[in-house]
């Protein structure tokens, strides 16, 4: 079962993807994480995308489609979760073609609906464990012991360079211009299932579980 988590920055895609990985053995493919890994490794591609990402713009379709193509294979176990991909119609078409080549298809597109007003607080309070990637929030999901990851015990907590109000404004504009048309696209294909992303994390998890069962 291959699914897409679709929603604006801060909607809760990464948080819910990690839960699906833990409970269902699905494989998370986050293009944002892949691009940040490329930056951390100092590769040429990483250097090329750093400024674009920090500003909150989308990197080229060619780069992200290439990243997905490298990771997609027949060994998906319980299925792939596409988190933050596709973000343009060209990416959506490329994904359909890549899946078809593997004899696979898309099961569901989960649209995580949130009010834009909630996103500033979501984004500016976000931090993650640099070791295992667990996602936290200053108010809504603090670590049990401040500064220490609940999951792996690491004290290497990180905040993203693009998690500020300025960059968020650009990211939201990019979302509405380039990504939100995907809602209509997947609706027309009959794959779209909306969930209320404003509910508590556990309630969102339950809604997604209900959609997938
Ligand atoms: P968020 O958690 O805010 O939704 P991501 O981690 O998914 O953000 O993405 C961070 C940044 O990485 C984006 O603002 C964009 O610059 C780049 N990026 C990630 N995925 C894509 C994609 N599919 N297409 C183009 N750019 C992408
Ligand atoms: P995305 O991957 O869509 O950008 P994240 O999963 O990283 O979003 O969530 C953004 C921030 O909001 C994180 O700090 C996370 O802990 C927090 N968060 C996620 N889901 C919820 C929720 N349902 N209620 C409150 N806070 C949430
Ligand atoms: Zn951790």
Question: What can you tell me about this protein's structure?
Answer:
With 213 residues, the chain is of the alpha/beta class. Helices cover 49% and strands 15% of the residues. Strands 2-3-1-4-8 form a 5-stranded parallel β-sheet. A 3-stranded antiparallel β-sheet has the order 6-5-7. The termini are close together. The mean pLDDT is 96. The structure holds adenosine-5'-diphosphate (2 copies) and zinc ion. Residues 7, 9-15, 122, 125-126, 135-137, 140-141, 200-201, 204 line the site of one adenosine-5'-diphosphate.
Characteristics:
213 residues; alpha/beta; 5-stranded parallel sheet; 3-stranded antiparallel sheet; 9 helices; globular; binds adenosine-5'-diphosphate; binds zinc ion
Task: Give a brief rundown of this model.
This protein has helices spanning 13-24, 31-41, 44-55, 61-71, 89-101, 116-124, 165-179, 181-189, 201-212, and strands at residues 3-6, 27-30, 80-83, 108-113, 126-129, 135-137, 157-158, 192-196.
Structural class: alpha/beta
Reading the helices and strands in chain order gives EHEHHHEHEHEEEHHEH
- Major β-sheet, in short? 5 strands, parallel
Order of strands across the main sheet: 2-3-1-4-8
What is the global morphology? globular
Mean pLDDT: 96
